[in-house]
Amino acid sequence: MFERYKGGEKALLVHVFFPHENDIEDLKEFEVLVSSAQIQILDIITTSRKSPQIKYFIGEGKALEIADLVRQYEASVILINHSLTPTQARNLENLCECRVVDRTGLILDIFAQRARTHEGKLQVELAQLQYISTRLVRGWTHLERQKGGIGLRGPGETQLETDRRLIKHRIHLILSRLAKVEKQRSQNRQARVKADLSTLSLVGYTNAGKSTLFNALTDSDVFTADQLFATLDPTLRRIKVKDVGDVVLADTVGFIRHLPHDLVAAFKATLLETKESDLLLHVIDAADDNLIDNIHAVDDVLAEINAHEIPTLLIMNKIDLLDGKEASIDRDRNGVPFRVWLSAQNKVGLDLLLIALKERLGKQIYTCQINLPVYLSRLRSRFYELNAIVHEKVNKDGSFCLNIRIPLIEWNRLCKQQPDLLYLINNQPKNRQ
Protein backbone atom coordinates (compact mmCIF):
# COMPACT_ATOMS: atom_id res chain seq x y z
CA MET A 1 0.00 0.00 0.00
CA PHE A 2 1.39 3.41 -0.99
CA GLU A 3 2.28 6.03 1.59
CA ARG A 4 -0.69 8.35 2.07
CA TYR A 5 -0.18 12.05 1.48
CA LYS A 6 0.34 14.12 4.61
CA GLY A 7 1.32 17.58 3.44
CA GLY A 8 0.19 19.60 0.45
CA GLU A 9 3.42 20.94 -1.01
CA LYS A 10 3.41 19.91 -4.68
CA ALA A 11 0.28 19.36 -6.73
CA LEU A 12 -0.97 18.62 -10.22
CA LEU A 13 -4.19 20.44 -11.09
CA VAL A 14 -6.81 18.76 -13.25
CA HIS A 15 -9.77 20.49 -14.87
CA VAL A 16 -12.34 19.05 -17.26
CA PHE A 17 -14.24 21.31 -19.66
CA PHE A 18 -17.81 20.16 -20.21
CA PRO A 19 -20.03 21.56 -23.01
CA HIS A 20 -22.53 23.11 -20.61
CA GLU A 21 -19.89 24.85 -18.41
CA ASN A 22 -16.95 25.78 -20.62
CA ASP A 23 -15.73 28.49 -18.27
CA ILE A 24 -12.03 29.36 -18.06
CA GLU A 25 -12.75 31.65 -15.11
CA ASP A 26 -13.65 28.59 -13.02
CA LEU A 27 -10.16 27.22 -13.64
CA LYS A 28 -8.53 30.55 -12.72
CA GLU A 29 -10.51 30.61 -9.50
CA PHE A 30 -9.38 27.06 -8.74
CA GLU A 31 -5.74 28.19 -9.11
CA VAL A 32 -6.41 30.95 -6.56
CA LEU A 33 -7.98 28.38 -4.23
CA VAL A 34 -4.89 26.19 -4.50
CA SER A 35 -2.61 29.15 -3.82
CA SER A 36 -4.75 30.07 -0.80
CA ALA A 37 -4.10 26.57 0.56
CA GLN A 38 -0.35 27.25 0.27
CA ILE A 39 0.18 24.48 -2.28
CA GLN A 40 2.77 24.66 -5.06
CA ILE A 41 1.30 24.12 -8.54
CA LEU A 42 3.52 21.87 -10.66
CA ASP A 43 1.37 21.68 -13.78
CA ILE A 44 -2.22 22.13 -14.95
CA ILE A 45 -3.82 19.32 -16.96
CA THR A 46 -7.01 20.09 -18.87
CA THR A 47 -9.25 17.90 -20.96
CA SER A 48 -12.71 18.00 -22.53
CA ARG A 49 -15.51 15.50 -22.12
CA LYS A 50 -19.20 15.34 -22.88
CA SER A 51 -19.87 13.72 -19.50
CA PRO A 52 -17.83 12.37 -16.54
CA GLN A 53 -16.35 8.89 -16.92
CA ILE A 54 -17.70 6.43 -14.38
CA LYS A 55 -14.38 4.89 -13.27
CA TYR A 56 -11.91 7.82 -13.29
CA PHE A 57 -14.17 10.84 -14.04
CA ILE A 58 -11.57 12.10 -16.56
CA GLY A 59 -11.23 9.11 -18.90
CA GLU A 60 -8.77 6.23 -18.74
CA GLY A 61 -6.26 7.67 -21.25
CA LYS A 62 -6.00 10.99 -19.42
CA ALA A 63 -5.76 9.12 -16.10
CA LEU A 64 -2.73 7.18 -17.38
CA GLU A 65 -1.17 10.43 -18.59
CA ILE A 66 -1.63 11.97 -15.15
CA ALA A 67 -0.07 8.88 -13.53
CA ASP A 68 3.04 9.37 -15.68
CA LEU A 69 3.18 13.08 -14.76
CA VAL A 70 2.96 12.20 -11.05
CA ARG A 71 6.09 10.07 -11.36
CA GLN A 72 7.82 12.65 -13.57
CA TYR A 73 7.18 15.60 -11.24
CA GLU A 74 7.22 13.55 -8.02
CA ALA A 75 3.93 15.19 -7.13
CA SER A 76 2.46 14.57 -3.71
CA VAL A 77 -1.21 15.28 -4.48
CA ILE A 78 -3.60 15.54 -7.43
CA LEU A 79 -6.22 18.27 -7.15
CA ILE A 80 -9.38 17.86 -9.25
CA ASN A 81 -11.53 20.94 -9.87
CA HIS A 82 -14.72 18.90 -9.62
CA SER A 83 -16.58 16.80 -7.09
CA LEU A 84 -15.59 13.13 -7.32
CA THR A 85 -17.41 10.11 -5.99
CA PRO A 86 -15.49 8.07 -3.39
CA THR A 87 -15.02 5.29 -5.96
CA GLN A 88 -13.58 7.65 -8.59
CA ALA A 89 -11.15 9.16 -6.09
CA ARG A 90 -10.08 5.72 -4.90
CA ASN A 91 -9.55 4.43 -8.45
CA LEU A 92 -7.37 7.43 -9.32
CA GLU A 93 -5.35 7.00 -6.11
CA ASN A 94 -4.68 3.35 -6.88
CA LEU A 95 -3.66 4.14 -10.46
CA CYS A 96 -1.45 7.15 -9.72
CA GLU A 97 -0.19 6.01 -6.28
CA CYS A 98 -0.80 9.54 -5.08
CA ARG A 99 -3.50 11.14 -2.99
CA VAL A 100 -6.42 12.63 -4.94
CA VAL A 101 -8.38 15.58 -3.54
CA ASP A 102 -11.42 17.04 -5.25
CA ARG A 103 -12.72 20.62 -5.09
CA THR A 104 -14.79 19.98 -1.97
CA GLY A 105 -11.83 18.48 -0.11
CA LEU A 106 -9.65 21.45 -1.04
CA ILE A 107 -12.21 23.98 0.20
CA LEU A 108 -12.56 22.04 3.44
CA ASP A 109 -8.78 22.13 3.88
CA ILE A 110 -8.75 25.92 3.40
CA PHE A 111 -11.59 26.30 5.89
CA ALA A 112 -9.64 24.19 8.39
CA GLN A 113 -6.68 26.57 8.04
CA ARG A 114 -8.83 29.69 8.47
CA ALA A 115 -11.08 28.68 11.39
CA ARG A 116 -10.10 30.57 14.53
CA THR A 117 -12.95 30.38 17.03
CA HIS A 118 -14.21 27.25 18.75
CA GLU A 119 -17.49 27.46 16.84
CA GLY A 120 -15.75 27.81 13.49
CA LYS A 121 -13.53 24.81 14.19
CA LEU A 122 -16.55 22.72 15.14
CA GLN A 123 -18.34 23.66 11.93
CA VAL A 124 -15.32 22.80 9.79
CA GLU A 125 -14.77 19.51 11.62
CA LEU A 126 -18.42 18.57 11.09
CA ALA A 127 -18.17 19.20 7.36
CA GLN A 128 -14.90 17.25 7.15
CA LEU A 129 -16.31 14.25 9.03
CA GLN A 130 -19.40 14.19 6.82
CA TYR A 131 -17.12 14.34 3.79
CA ILE A 132 -14.70 11.57 4.78
CA SER A 133 -17.33 9.24 6.25
CA THR A 134 -17.98 7.85 2.74
CA ARG A 135 -14.28 7.71 1.86
CA LEU A 136 -12.97 5.26 4.46
CA VAL A 137 -13.22 2.11 2.33
CA ARG A 138 -9.90 0.33 1.71
CA GLY A 139 -8.10 2.69 4.04
CA TRP A 140 -7.59 -0.14 6.54
CA THR A 141 -7.89 -3.30 4.40
CA HIS A 142 -4.40 -4.38 5.44
CA LEU A 143 -5.53 -4.75 9.06
CA GLU A 144 -7.11 -7.97 10.37
CA ARG A 145 -10.29 -8.03 12.40
CA GLN A 146 -9.78 -7.10 16.01
CA LYS A 147 -9.83 -9.93 18.54
CA GLY A 148 -11.58 -9.99 21.89
CA GLY A 149 -10.35 -11.43 25.16
CA ILE A 150 -11.10 -14.84 26.72
CA GLY A 151 -14.58 -15.90 25.72
CA LEU A 152 -14.75 -13.21 23.07
CA ARG A 153 -12.47 -14.68 20.39
CA GLY A 154 -13.56 -14.88 16.80
CA PRO A 155 -14.41 -12.31 14.14
CA GLY A 156 -14.63 -8.90 15.73
CA GLU A 157 -15.14 -5.39 14.53
CA THR A 158 -13.01 -4.34 11.56
CA GLN A 159 -10.98 -1.14 11.76
CA LEU A 160 -13.27 0.31 9.09
CA GLU A 161 -16.34 -0.39 11.20
CA THR A 162 -14.60 1.08 14.24
CA ASP A 163 -13.76 4.27 12.35
CA ARG A 164 -17.30 4.63 11.06
CA ARG A 165 -18.68 4.20 14.56
CA LEU A 166 -16.25 6.73 16.02
CA ILE A 167 -17.00 9.24 13.25
CA LYS A 168 -20.74 8.81 13.77
CA HIS A 169 -20.31 9.40 17.51
CA ARG A 170 -18.15 12.48 16.91
CA ILE A 171 -20.65 13.93 14.42
CA HIS A 172 -23.43 13.45 16.97
CA LEU A 173 -21.33 15.21 19.62
CA ILE A 174 -20.52 18.16 17.33
CA LEU A 175 -24.15 18.53 16.29
CA SER A 176 -25.20 18.72 19.94
CA ARG A 177 -22.59 21.41 20.63
CA LEU A 178 -23.58 23.39 17.52
CA ALA A 179 -27.22 23.12 18.62
CA LYS A 180 -26.23 24.97 21.80
CA VAL A 181 -24.47 27.62 19.70
CA GLU A 182 -27.56 27.97 17.51
CA LYS A 183 -29.77 28.29 20.60
CA GLN A 184 -27.50 31.01 22.00
CA ARG A 185 -27.53 32.90 18.70
CA SER A 186 -31.31 32.58 18.59
CA GLN A 187 -31.57 34.08 22.07
CA ASN A 188 -29.32 36.95 21.00
CA ARG A 189 -31.49 37.57 17.93
CA GLN A 190 -34.62 37.57 20.09
CA ALA A 191 -33.00 40.12 22.38
CA ARG A 192 -32.24 42.33 19.38
CA VAL A 193 -35.82 42.00 18.14
CA LYS A 194 -37.12 42.90 21.60
CA ALA A 195 -34.88 45.96 21.59
CA ASP A 196 -36.11 46.86 18.05
CA LEU A 197 -32.58 46.70 16.64
CA SER A 198 -32.29 46.24 12.90
CA THR A 199 -29.70 43.72 11.68
CA LEU A 200 -27.55 44.17 8.57
CA SER A 201 -25.48 41.33 7.13
CA LEU A 202 -22.51 41.70 4.83
CA VAL A 203 -22.70 39.01 2.17
CA GLY A 204 -20.78 38.53 -1.02
CA TYR A 205 -18.23 36.55 -2.95
CA THR A 206 -15.11 35.61 -1.05
CA ASN A 207 -12.38 38.27 -1.09
CA ALA A 208 -14.83 41.00 -2.16
CA GLY A 209 -13.81 43.19 0.79
CA LYS A 210 -16.56 42.49 3.35
CA SER A 211 -14.28 42.45 6.39
CA THR A 212 -12.46 45.59 5.23
CA LEU A 213 -15.80 47.39 4.94
CA PHE A 214 -16.85 45.99 8.32
CA ASN A 215 -13.71 47.38 9.95
CA ALA A 216 -14.16 50.75 8.25
CA LEU A 217 -17.75 51.11 9.48
CA THR A 218 -17.21 49.81 13.02
CA ASP A 219 -13.58 50.77 13.77
CA SER A 220 -12.90 47.09 14.47
CA ASP A 221 -9.84 44.97 13.75
CA VAL A 222 -11.39 41.88 12.17
CA PHE A 223 -8.74 39.87 10.31
CA THR A 224 -8.47 40.87 6.65
CA ALA A 225 -6.24 39.51 3.89
CA ASP A 226 -6.12 39.36 0.11
CA GLN A 227 -7.04 35.70 0.07
CA LEU A 228 -10.10 33.48 -0.27
CA PHE A 229 -12.09 32.70 2.88
CA ALA A 230 -10.16 35.05 5.18
CA THR A 231 -13.32 35.25 7.31
CA LEU A 232 -15.12 32.16 8.62
CA ASP A 233 -16.38 33.25 12.02
CA PRO A 234 -19.24 35.81 12.14
CA THR A 235 -18.59 39.04 13.99
CA LEU A 236 -21.32 41.44 15.14
CA ARG A 237 -20.94 45.12 16.03
CA ARG A 238 -23.28 48.06 16.59
CA ILE A 239 -23.19 51.12 14.35
CA LYS A 240 -25.27 54.32 14.45
CA VAL A 241 -27.34 55.38 11.45
CA LYS A 242 -28.92 58.84 11.45
CA ASP A 243 -32.71 58.83 11.94
CA VAL A 244 -32.56 55.08 12.52
CA GLY A 245 -30.48 54.71 15.67
CA ASP A 246 -28.36 51.71 16.56
CA VAL A 247 -28.26 48.81 14.11
CA VAL A 248 -26.31 45.55 14.29
CA LEU A 249 -23.83 44.84 11.48
CA ALA A 250 -22.74 41.23 10.91
CA ASP A 251 -19.67 40.12 8.95
CA THR A 252 -20.22 36.64 7.48
CA VAL A 253 -18.34 33.95 5.57
CA GLY A 254 -17.77 34.57 1.87
CA PHE A 255 -19.43 32.51 -0.83
CA ILE A 256 -17.94 30.80 -3.85
CA ARG A 257 -19.04 28.85 -6.93
CA HIS A 258 -20.16 25.30 -6.23
CA LEU A 259 -19.98 25.77 -2.46
CA PRO A 260 -20.25 22.23 -1.02
CA HIS A 261 -23.70 21.43 0.37
CA ASP A 262 -22.17 19.78 3.45
CA LEU A 263 -20.36 23.04 4.16
CA VAL A 264 -23.57 25.07 3.87
CA ALA A 265 -25.27 22.64 6.25
CA ALA A 266 -22.35 22.73 8.71
CA PHE A 267 -22.39 26.54 8.78
CA LYS A 268 -26.14 26.66 9.36
CA ALA A 269 -25.78 28.48 12.70
CA THR A 270 -23.56 31.10 11.07
CA LEU A 271 -25.72 31.55 7.98
CA LEU A 272 -28.83 32.05 10.13
CA GLU A 273 -27.47 35.52 10.92
CA THR A 274 -27.87 36.23 7.21
CA LYS A 275 -31.31 34.64 7.00
CA GLU A 276 -32.67 36.69 9.93
CA SER A 277 -31.34 40.05 8.70
CA ASP A 278 -33.50 43.07 7.88
CA LEU A 279 -31.21 44.14 5.03
CA LEU A 280 -28.39 42.41 3.16
CA LEU A 281 -25.37 44.43 2.06
CA HIS A 282 -24.12 42.51 -0.98
CA VAL A 283 -20.46 43.50 -1.29
CA ILE A 284 -19.12 43.16 -4.86
CA ASP A 285 -15.58 43.52 -6.16
CA ALA A 286 -16.26 46.16 -8.82
CA ALA A 287 -12.81 45.62 -10.35
CA ASP A 288 -13.35 41.88 -10.92
CA ASP A 289 -13.87 41.01 -14.60
CA ASN A 290 -16.07 38.11 -13.51
CA LEU A 291 -18.34 40.08 -11.19
CA ILE A 292 -21.60 39.08 -12.92
CA ASP A 293 -20.92 35.37 -12.38
CA ASN A 294 -19.86 36.11 -8.80
CA ILE A 295 -23.17 37.87 -8.16
CA HIS A 296 -25.07 34.88 -9.53
CA ALA A 297 -23.02 32.51 -7.34
CA VAL A 298 -23.92 34.53 -4.22
CA ASP A 299 -27.58 34.64 -5.25
CA ASP A 300 -27.56 30.84 -5.62
CA VAL A 301 -26.27 30.35 -2.06
CA LEU A 302 -28.75 32.90 -0.68
CA ALA A 303 -31.55 30.97 -2.39
CA GLU A 304 -30.23 27.73 -0.88
CA ILE A 305 -30.50 29.13 2.65
CA ASN A 306 -33.87 30.82 1.89
CA ALA A 307 -32.45 34.33 2.21
CA HIS A 308 -33.04 35.43 -1.39
CA GLU A 309 -36.20 37.43 -0.58
CA ILE A 310 -34.53 39.68 1.99
CA PRO A 311 -34.12 43.31 0.78
CA THR A 312 -30.63 43.87 -0.62
CA LEU A 313 -28.37 46.88 -1.12
CA LEU A 314 -25.52 46.35 -3.60
CA ILE A 315 -22.11 47.65 -2.48
CA MET A 316 -19.71 48.11 -5.41
CA ASN A 317 -16.37 47.99 -3.58
CA LYS A 318 -12.77 48.66 -4.72
CA ILE A 319 -13.55 51.65 -6.97
CA ASP A 320 -9.96 52.75 -6.28
CA LEU A 321 -8.97 50.07 -8.81
CA LEU A 322 -11.25 51.60 -11.48
CA ASP A 323 -10.02 54.55 -13.53
CA GLY A 324 -12.11 57.68 -13.07
CA LYS A 325 -14.84 56.07 -10.97
CA GLU A 326 -16.04 58.18 -8.05
CA ALA A 327 -18.12 57.31 -5.02
CA SER A 328 -21.84 57.63 -5.75
CA ILE A 329 -25.33 56.29 -5.05
CA ASP A 330 -27.47 54.72 -7.77
CA ARG A 331 -31.23 55.01 -7.28
CA ASP A 332 -34.21 53.32 -8.88
CA ARG A 333 -37.06 55.17 -10.61
CA ASN A 334 -38.67 55.77 -7.20
CA GLY A 335 -35.52 57.40 -5.86
CA VAL A 336 -34.68 54.52 -3.52
CA PRO A 337 -30.95 53.65 -3.26
CA PHE A 338 -30.17 50.18 -4.64
CA ARG A 339 -26.40 50.46 -5.27
CA VAL A 340 -23.49 52.33 -3.66
CA TRP A 341 -20.03 52.77 -5.19
CA LEU A 342 -17.20 53.06 -2.64
CA SER A 343 -13.72 51.99 -1.59
CA ALA A 344 -13.60 50.35 1.83
CA GLN A 345 -9.80 50.19 1.76
CA ASN A 346 -9.45 53.95 1.27
CA LYS A 347 -12.62 54.78 3.26
CA VAL A 348 -14.09 56.63 0.32
CA GLY A 349 -17.87 56.74 -0.01
CA LEU A 350 -18.68 55.48 3.49
CA ASP A 351 -20.75 58.62 4.14
CA LEU A 352 -22.82 57.81 1.06
CA LEU A 353 -23.36 54.28 2.34
CA LEU A 354 -24.68 55.63 5.65
CA ILE A 355 -27.04 57.92 3.71
CA ALA A 356 -28.29 54.95 1.71
CA LEU A 357 -28.77 52.94 4.92
CA LYS A 358 -30.68 55.84 6.46
CA GLU A 359 -33.04 55.94 3.49
CA ARG A 360 -33.47 52.15 3.31
CA LEU A 361 -33.93 51.62 7.06
CA GLY A 362 -35.27 54.98 8.21
CA LYS A 363 -38.29 55.29 5.98
CA GLN A 364 -40.66 54.98 8.93
CA ILE A 365 -40.34 58.26 10.82
CA TYR A 366 -42.88 59.18 13.45
CA THR A 367 -43.84 62.86 13.83
CA CYS A 368 -46.19 64.38 16.38
CA GLN A 369 -46.78 67.34 18.65
CA ILE A 370 -46.95 66.53 22.33
CA ASN A 371 -47.57 68.53 25.50
CA LEU A 372 -45.21 67.10 28.05
CA PRO A 373 -46.01 67.67 31.75
CA VAL A 374 -43.28 68.91 34.05
CA TYR A 375 -43.17 65.62 35.94
CA LEU A 376 -42.06 63.93 32.69
CA SER A 377 -39.13 66.28 32.11
CA ARG A 378 -36.84 63.28 32.22
CA LEU A 379 -38.56 62.06 29.05
CA ARG A 380 -37.84 65.48 27.48
CA SER A 381 -34.15 64.90 28.17
CA ARG A 382 -34.45 61.54 26.47
CA PHE A 383 -35.95 63.19 23.38
CA TYR A 384 -32.96 65.57 23.28
CA GLU A 385 -30.55 62.65 23.54
CA LEU A 386 -32.22 61.13 20.48
CA ASN A 387 -32.06 64.48 18.65
CA ALA A 388 -35.82 64.13 18.11
CA ILE A 389 -37.04 67.63 19.06
CA VAL A 390 -37.67 69.83 16.01
CA HIS A 391 -39.22 72.75 17.92
CA GLU A 392 -40.01 73.48 21.56
CA LYS A 393 -41.94 76.11 23.49
CA VAL A 394 -42.92 76.42 27.15
CA ASN A 395 -46.62 76.66 27.98
CA LYS A 396 -48.05 78.96 30.66
CA ASP A 397 -48.51 76.03 33.04
CA GLY A 398 -44.83 75.12 32.73
CA SER A 399 -45.38 72.10 30.47
CA PHE A 400 -43.45 71.68 27.26
CA CYS A 401 -44.95 71.76 23.79
CA LEU A 402 -42.68 69.62 21.66
CA ASN A 403 -42.66 68.96 17.93
CA ILE A 404 -41.19 65.48 17.69
CA ARG A 405 -39.56 63.77 14.70
CA ILE A 406 -38.20 60.37 15.67
CA PRO A 407 -37.53 56.98 14.04
CA LEU A 408 -40.53 54.72 14.54
CA ILE A 409 -38.26 52.10 16.11
CA GLU A 410 -37.18 54.52 18.85
CA TRP A 411 -40.77 55.73 19.36
CA ASN A 412 -42.05 52.20 19.91
CA ARG A 413 -39.21 51.58 22.33
CA LEU A 414 -40.13 54.71 24.36
CA CYS A 415 -43.79 53.71 24.40
CA LYS A 416 -42.85 50.36 25.92
CA GLN A 417 -40.81 52.14 28.59
CA GLN A 418 -43.44 54.89 29.18
CA PRO A 419 -46.96 53.45 28.66
CA ASP A 420 -48.59 56.87 29.43
CA LEU A 421 -46.83 58.39 26.42
CA LEU A 422 -49.51 57.19 24.00
CA TYR A 423 -52.21 59.06 25.93
CA LEU A 424 -50.25 62.31 25.88
CA ILE A 425 -50.47 62.68 22.12
CA ASN A 426 -54.30 62.89 22.30
CA ASN A 427 -54.72 59.78 20.19
CA GLN A 428 -53.15 61.43 17.17
CA PRO A 429 -52.55 58.92 14.34
CA LYS A 430 -49.01 58.00 13.59
CA ASN A 431 -47.61 59.96 10.68
CA ARG A 432 -44.98 58.02 8.77
CA GLN A 433 -42.68 59.58 6.21
Quick description:
This protein is an alpha/beta fold.
Which features does this protein show?
14 helices; nucleotide-binding; disordered C terminus; single chain; 433 residues; disordered N terminus; GTPase HflX; 4-stranded parallel beta sheet; 40% helix
Structure notes:
- By secondary structure, this protein is of the alpha/beta class.
- 40% of the residues lie in helices and 21% in strands.
- The chain is elongated, with a radius of gyration of 28 Å.
- Strand 10 (328-331) and strand 11 form a beta hairpin.
- Mean pLDDT is 78; it is low at 1-7, 140-148 and 427-433.
- It contains 14 helices and 15 strands.
- The strands form three sheets. The chain has a seven-stranded mixed β-sheet with strand order 6-7-5-8-9-11-10, sandwiched between helices. Strands 2-1-3-4 form a four-stranded parallel β-sheet, with helices on both faces.
- It has helices at residues 24-36, 60-73, 86-96, 103-114, 118-132, 159-194, 210-218, 261-266, 268-275, 291-304, 350-361, 377-385, 408-417, 421-424, and strands spanning 10-17, 40-48, 77-80, 99-101, 198-204, 235-241, 245-251, 279-285, 312-317, 328-331, 337-341, 365-372, 389-394, 400-407, 431-432.
